[in-house]
Amino acid sequence: MQTPTGNPLHNSRKEEIITPPFGKGRLGGILRSHLLALVGAALCGRPSAAGFPNPGVHGGTPLRNSKGISVLFLVVALLLMMAVGYVLSYLIPTKQKSVKFPIYSTQAFYLAQSGMEYGVYYCSNQGWRGATDSGRLDYDRLNDLGAKNLVIGKVNGKFTISYNTGTGVLTSTGEINQSTEKRIVTVSNFNQFLRLTFTSSPCWISGYSNTRAQFGIRRWRGTTVTLRYFSATWQEDTVPARNITTIRFGTNTRFSGTYGSGSGIVILSANQAVGTGGVNVEIRWNAAMTNPRNIIITFYTAAGAAIGEGYPFNLDPAGNNLPGC
Q1: For residue 157, what is the enclosing H or E element?
Q2: Whole-prediction pTM value?
Q3: Nearest CA to 217 among 201, 197, 202, 203?
């Protein structure tokens, strides 16, 4: 019997050695080439010619890699959105600031309108003659009013009145405080609102101490003003208090009787028309008064007597008695 030779373990099994078709260095180079081709194709947006068949020639699966273009469009879109956002962030605050200007303009307009209404009311009442009994007329005093500041809710502004006695134009300017917005309203024929005005300052007639007062009035508007009623109030220190006994317009006596202060509206004996030429009014008390003051005489038309609207004449707004004349 022949004794086996060599390593028994080596002889007891079959050792298989697999040799790759390519060397180690060759395989790594091929894999690296394929990977580089794939990355380049992805970045350039076209299929790689290495390792992939042409679908049009060999019927392989098509490779539609558009990731590179998508990323480019995404970046461009983001840049556009950022640009639009920046523009909007600039325009929105600017728009919010500009919205205030038409609001201020509208508020200034209504302030100017308020000034005009104020002027109409002033001239319609005719009782505001200022602090002194000077010879200036009521409509001249419109320019003395100055700027009237008004605070109504969130509106903080003022109006200024200016009256041209020569042209009869009243101008009212409305302004918003702490703003440059202004609106101007004018009335070219304002004298129609003046109604009746003083033409001479009230005074005590010389020789009739505190008994007979006189003053002149005239009509400014185009329509006729016909007086039909009167009322009067005054203050005095005399006891017993005095009474009005006579009211004369020019040479015509329109009231004769007894009238105490605050006795209400009383009818005149006849209608009294007041023209643009004016008329002199004389009021007589039954006796001299001590320290007479705050004398207000109001004349009414027939329509005005029913609702108490008339033409008030404050003979002594300063409350310091009338001067002599």
Answers
A1: strand 155-164
A2: 0.55
A3: 197
Q: Would you say how long the chain is, in residues?
A: 325
What tokens were used for 221? 């508007």
Of 279, 309, 287, the residue nearest 124 (C-alpha): 309
- Among candidate residues 118, 133, 124, the one with its CA nearest the CA of residue 295: 133
Write out pLDDT tens, residues 250-292. 999 999 999 999 999 999 999 999 988 889 999 999 999 999 9
* Integer Cα distance of 237 and 259 in angstroms: 17
Residue type, 302: A
| Full DSSP string of 271-297 | EEEE-TT-EEEEEEESS--SS-EEEEE
Q: How far apart are CA 42 and CA 15, in angstroms?
A: 45
Q: What is the per-residue pLDDT across 10-59, written as a single tens digit (0 to 9) for each? A: 444 444 444 444 444 444 455 455 544 554 554 444 444 444 444 444 44
Spelled out in words, what is the top-level CATH class assigned to the domain 115-193? mainly beta
Place of tokens 């009994």: 133
**Alpha-carbon 189 to chain mean position:** 26
Contact 129, 144 (CB under 8 A): no
Q: Does domain 196-314 correspond to CATH entry 2.60.120?
A: yes
CB 285 within 8 A of CB 243: yes
Domains of the chain, by residue range, sit at 115-193, 196-314
Residue type, 95: K
Question: Which secondary structure element, helix H or strand E, spans residue 147, and what is its range?
Answer: strand 147-152
Q: Do domains 115-193 and 196-314 have the same CATH topology?
A: no
d(CA 186, CA 173): 9
Q: How many CA atoms within 13 Å lie on the side-chain side of 49?
A: 1
